[in-house]
Automatic annotation (TrEMBL), chain B:
It comes from Parablautia muri. Keywords: Membrane, Transmembrane, Transmembrane helix. This is Uncharacterized protein. The keyword Transmembrane applies. The chain crosses the membrane at residues 238-256, 276-298, 318-342, 349-370, 402-421.
Length: 206, 444
């Protein structure tokens, strides 16, 4: 346990902290971009889906950053510790931050006098953020390039603005249209992409 | 003349030979960088996304639908009005709807921000409406429902027409100055960046065109824009959206290539100057990014070039080069130069976050989809034609694009300076180099 804690702390200290700071900036400056006052259900969903979803891109895409360096990558492969054990704590950390950020926004909107079901919005937003983040995670896992990870996630987000109909059940921004049932698809998609990404790292050689 | 660039490094050449050598070295580096871009997966993703985006957006513009206006048509399109009465009536109609739904669109920092007012603020907004129209909110609501009720059974297009034709008249003796003061009060309630700011409401009330206006517009389309220029301006509008963001990924990926391949030190030891390396890399990336834009523009322009002939007009064959050259080239230049500068400075992907935020802010911050260029990175022109309006705004566009062109040159120069400093230091600009592998190795 101590070993994984050390590995994760080292990852945060050396690579991950700028992304956590960016997430913090996203929260600090949120007042300039979104309103928290007297939001109805679709408006609250809009805040979560159009703004807070960016945290998914920020938190999950850079989880393989250290291994972009081939020396670290080879070093990890040469050790007896399974690689998924190195990656899983990172994913859990990102997930924890993601849930905390979502909770914070739901809380701020409730405090502003919002009229929406907090639990349902929280569940949907967490799954959606996780799904969008897992797209970046998977893309950076299979290409070993975090830039491609960001590109894939940003492009997926952009495609949903005008072309959500082509993405079926996996389209984003469904809650602001009043559809709250797609969270299972997002969760399923995220599970497949996250495990697929980790599996790819285990099997692939760059 | 074949030149061995190795001699150049040893300083055995004469001045003229040095010049030739530099040219040859630049050419060699440029081609090498082009090949590197072609090997990059990020580049192919850029090309695919660009082509798909343009095709999906431009497919709604059908060349077949382009017809000469004839008298007696029921609809000729719409145009922005400068009539003060119509501006007041149109803006108040928007305000009635926003107050009814308690939902106000604002763009305080360039991004969309939906604002909801408290019960007390809504009452104040209703009071403002009463002062402008002389009617209570209940009366206004009733009139609004009556107006839209007549269109309720029809499709989306008709509902849009209903919204466009909805007007709320002002009370007798109410002047434009009174209206401006009332809108300032609304802005105070709603916050910055709403449609009730003077700059916004004076450019967003549309009225249906008459036959004469439509005829004038069509003639300008043929004589001033030669048809193809108008179409390529619309192409530039859509392309500009993608090009504000996507090139950053190619730029960052290209600028980090040496670091990823761990050849920074090797590159620093090469005889080529920092300027030669950075500028050749920058220009290679720029050319490769612009190439698909020009090819797609050319292919998109072809049906309009043929259509121009049907109207007896000689289309501008070079519009696919000249219009994007002014409209899109400076945009790609600054995005790429910014990517190079920030990446060289930080040795990180920080440029992605800054540029994505900048691109989205510029896109969502536009108060109108036609014109209002200011210093916006994404210059919007979401209309086919409007040659007269374009003529009046041309200077503003040139200033905007000239500004970004110069800024891009400055960014590239700064990148060269940073590259040279790093070369002298022999490493990156960070004082602390973390032996990450060591800490990882120990932990594992």
């Amino acid at each position: 346990m101590e070993k994984y804690k050390k590995l994760t702390v080292s990852f945060v200290k050396r690579q991950y902290y700028p992304h956590l700071l960016l997430t913090l900036l996203l929260i600090v400056f949120s007042g300039g971009f979104v309103s928290f006052k007297a939001l109805e259900e679709p408006q609250a969903a809009k805040v979560m889906e159009m703004y807070v979803t960016f945290t998914g891109i920020l938190l999950f895409t850079p989880l393989f950053m250290p291994e972009q360096d081939k020396e670290i990558w080879n070093l990890e492969r040469s050790k007896s510790t399974s690689m998924w054990k190195v990656y899983l704590p990172r994913v859990l950390l990102a997930l924890l931050v993601c849930v905390l950020v979502t909770l914070l926004f739901v809380g701020l909107m409730k405090k502003g006098g919002g009229h929406f079901h907090a639990g349902i919005l929280l569940r949907g937003a967490c799954c959606e953020i996780l799904f969008l983040g897992s797209i970046g995670f998977f893309a950076s896992a299979v290409t070993n390039q975090v830039v491609i990870g960001y590109m894939a996630a940003v492009v997926y987000y952009a495609v949903n603005i005008g072309g959500g109909k082509f993405l079926g059940r996996f389209a984003l921004f469904k809650m602001m249209q009043g559809e709250y049932g797609t969270w299972t698809y997002w969760l399923f998609g995220a599970a497949v992409l996250l495990s697929g990404g980790i599996l790819a790292r285990e099997k692939m050689r760059f | 003349m074949k030149i061995d660039v190795g001699y150049f490094a040893k300083g055995v050449w004469k001045k003229s030979e040095k010049k030739e050598g530099k040219k040859a070295m630049f050419g060699a580096l440029f081609l090498k960088e082009c090949r590197q871009v072609l090997k990059s997966l990020v580049y192919y993703i850029y090309v695919v996304v660009f082509v798909l985006f343009i095709n999906s957006q431009m497919s709604s513009e059908s060349v077949e639908e382009l017809q000469e206006p004839v008298p007696g048509q029921t609809y000729y399109g719409e145009t922005v009005t400068q009539d003060e009465t119509l501006i007041m009536e149109g803006t108040l109609a928007d305000l009635v709807q926003d107050v009814c739904h308690n939902s106000f669109a604002t763009y305080p920092l360039g991004f969309y921000k939906g604002v909801n007012l408290t019960a007390e603020e809504i009452e104040q907004a209703e009071e403002i409406l009463k002062n402008c129209t002389g009617k209570s909110m209940d009366e206004l609501k009733e009139e609004m429902e009556e107006h839209f009720g007549g269109y309720a059974q029809n499709g989306m297009e008709v509902r849009m027409e209903a919204a466009a034709s909805y007007r709320v008249p002002v009370k007798e003796g109410f002047t434009y100055e009174d209206f401006e003061t009332a809108m300032e009060e609304v802005c105070h309630l709603v916050g910055r960046g709403s449609f009730y700011e003077k700059e916004s409401y004076e450019n967003r009330v549309y009225v249906p065109m008459t036959y004469e206006q439509a005829r004038e517009e069509f003639d300008a389309l043929c004589t001033k824009d030669n048809l193809t220029r108008a179409y390529i301006r619309l192409f530039c509008d859509y392309a500009g959206i993608v090009l504000a963001i996507l090139p950053i990924f190619v730029g960052v990926s290209g600028a980090l290539r040496d670091k990823r391949a761990k050849v920074q030190q090797v590159m620093f030891s090469k005889p080529a100057s920092g300027a030669l390396i950075v500028v050749s890399r920058y220009l290679a990336n720029l050319v490769m990014l612009i190439l698909p834009v020009v090819i797609v523009a050319f292919l998109q322009q072809r049906p309009y070039y043929d259509k121009a002939k049907e109207f007896g007009v000689q289309g501008d064959m070079w519009a696919f080069l000249t219009v994007p050259g002014v409209w899109l080239l400076p945009e790609v230049m600054i995005v790429l130069a910014f990517a190079f500068l920030i990446t060289e400075l930080t040795d990180s992907i920080a440029a992605i976050f800054i540029q994505v935020a900048w691109g989205i802010a510029s896109l969502f911050g536009a108060s109108t989809l036609v014109g209002n260029f200011g210093l916006r990175l994404v210059a919007r022109w979401n209309t086919f034609g409007s040659a007269e309006l374009y003529d009046t705004l041309k200077e503003e566009l040139f200033l905007n694009r000239g500004y970004y062109f110069l800024l891009a040159v400055i960014c590239v120069l700064m990148t060269v300076i940073i590259y040279e400093i790093k070369r002298k230091m022999g490493t990156n600009l960070k004082r602390n180099h973390y032996p990450f592998e060591e800490s990882f190795g120990k932990a594992l």
